[in-house]
Structure formats: structure tokens, C-alpha cells
Write a structure and sequence with these properties.
It contains five helices and eleven strands, in the order E-H-E-E-E-H-E-E-E-E-E-H-E-E-H-H. Helix 2 crosses helix 4 and helix 4 runs antiparallel to helix 5. Strand 3 and strand 4 form a beta hairpin. It has 285 residues and is α+β, with helices and mostly antiparallel strands. Helix content is 27%, strand content 22%.
């Protein structure tokens, strides 16, 4: 039997399996703020691990009254693919055991990656994760310090992230979709070295709400590849993508997405914290 744990499948096959396959719920992620289930979906001998988030299990958010969190997660994938960002795992909207919900390919983590969820940082990890907490004197090359903080023992620590091309691409996507919840735990490093972001349910608001741990490039000029992706996304927004997003987002939100794309290209710099909202989600991990 073919599984995603042992074989590399192209995205089109993964999307087909997620959409048409038999979905079996195997367990619940109890730490999630909304109902989230780990499952397996199978079709024609292909078996994929997935996460399934039914709309019925969503908690209403006062500042995101339109649409559903599941629809926003699907929209993030659509935008990521339309612009060529490629940093959101295959994600579809489908029926499941608990009704219609978001179904996303589960990214099997790199077994060598460290976990930054523990706030205590007694010493620098041999291999920090892509986003991590490290001792305050950590100065290894290839890492960008975002802010200074203290652990529960009042010891100074640094929040850092890797100076990584795929991570920077994710930061551009977050600016485009106005991601209000890019936690460190929402950055995934796959066993094959791939880098993905997950949990995009609190995105696409028409008002500026960008909250992220990926501020390391704030104020820097866009890369050529960023401009190419933004131009492609802008063209797609004007040639049918907006109609597809209308199924999941309000028209005001869809228009705001196109505005942010144009504004990023016009400014030609990575966004800076605006000060109207906390710059980093809480908790950060």
C-alpha cells in the first residue's frame, strides 16, 4: 500500500486523494482551540495522513464574523498556489464524519528538529528549529533575532528565526493574506526538508492584523522572486481567483487582498509592525 510517509506524491494526486478519498478519523488534537482531528484518507491504494477541522467544531470569533475558519484555510492554499508561493500544504473543503470541514495533508516533521514549545532554555540547542527560543547571547550565523524576552525563571532569551528563503516566502504570503496568527508552531519542517505553514484560519481580514514571529526581514526590499510572485498573484486576482475566493471570504476581504498585493509591490519593502495591534501572536508557540 502506498503512503505519503514513504513515497513522494505530486500535489495534484494529494489533492485528489484528499477530495475524493475515504476519510477515517483516528484521534483528536486536544490542545487545539477548535475541533481538530488527525485522520487518514485513502483512495486507490494511496493512503495519506491528514488533519480534519469540521466547521461545526469552530468557535465563533467576534472579529472574523464572515465565512468560516475552514474556508479561510482553503483560501490560504488557493492564494499560495496562485502566486507560486508553495508554502501551504494541499488543503480542501470536504465532507467528513462531523460534517463539512477543512482537510489538509499532514506534514510529517523532521525527526531532527528541536521543539521550542518549552519556554525554559538552559542552553543553546545543537540545531535550533526554524523558529526558536535561544539564550540571550546566541549569535550563530544564519539566524535573525526578532525580540528579547524572559523565560519563567526571569532569564533573558531571544526569539529567533532562520534566515531561510522558504521562510521569507512564507513571510511574504503572511503579509498578503494578513495572517493574524503566525506562531512558531505553525511553521513546519518536513522530513524531506520542505517548509510549510499551517493554521491560516485567522487570516484575510480587511483591517491590518498581521501578527507573526517572522519579522526578521521587516523594512527590507522585496526580492526579485517576491515581486514575480506578487505580480502573478495580482494578475490571477483579476482573472478569476477573486470569484473562487468569493465562496469562502466576503467581497470586502477579497478586495482587500488585491489591495495588499498592489501595496506591497508599490512599497517594494517587507511590512513593518504598525503598532495598532500586538506584533506577535500570544502565545508565540
Amino acid at each position: 500500500m502506498q503512503t505519503d510517509e514513504h513515497d513522494t506524491l505530486d500535489d495534484a494526486t494529494v489533492v485528489e486523494v484528499l477530495t475524493r478519498g475515504e476519510l477515517e478519523v483516528e484521534g483528536r488534537l486536544v490542545a487545539a482551540s477548535n475541533a481538530s482531528f488527525l485522520g487518514r484518507v485513502s483512495l486507490g491504494g494511496v493512503v495519506l495522513s491528514c488533519i480534519y477541522k469540521p466547521v461545526a467544531g469552530e468557535r465563533p470569533l467576534w472579529d472574523f464574523p464572515a465565512g468560516t475558519l475552514a474556508g479561510r484555510e482553503v483560501s490560504a492554499r488557493l492564494v499560495s498556489e496562485a502566486g507560486g508561493f508553495g508554502v501551504v500544504p494541499p488543503t480542501v473543503l470536504r465532507e467528513g464524519q462531523f460534517g463539512v470541514g477543512m482537510c489538509q495533508q499532514w506534514i510529517h516533521a523532521d525527526p531532527g528538529a528541536e521543539t521550542a514549545a518549552a519556554v525554559t532554555v538552559p542552553e543553546a540547542p545543537e540545531r535550533p528549529d526554524l523558529v526558536d527560543l535561544v539564550p540571550h547571547d546566541f549569535r550563530d550565523p544564519g539566524w535573525i533575532a526578532v525580540l528579547e524576552a524572559e523565560d519563567q525563571h526571569d532569564r533573558p532569551v531571544l526569539l529567533v528565526h532562520a534566515d531561510h528563503d522558504r521562510l521569507r516566502t512564507m513571510a511574504v504570503l503572511d503579509a498578503v493574506i494578513n495572517n493574524a496568527d503566525r506562531k512558531g508552531g505553525h511553521v513546519l519542517r518536513g522530513a524531506d526538508g520542505s517548509v510549510y505553514g499551517c493554521d491560516h484560519g485567522v487570516s484575510f481580514h480587511e483591517e491590518p492584523k498581521l501578527r507573526t514571529v517572522l519579522w526578521g526581514w521587516a523594512g527590507e526590499r522585496l526580492r526579485d522572486v517576491d515581486r514575480e510572485m506578487l505580480r502573478e498573484l495580482g494578475a490571477r486576482c483579476r482573472s478569476g481567483l477573486d470569484d473562487v475566493l468569493d465562496r469562502h471570504l466576503s467581497r470586502v476581504e477579497v478586495n482587500a487582498l488585491a489591495y495588499r498585493v498592489d501595496k506591497l509591490l508599490q512599497d517594494d519593502v517587507m511590512p513593518r509592525p504598525e503598532g495598532r495591534w500586538p506584533m506577535i501572536p500570544w502565545p508565540a508557540f
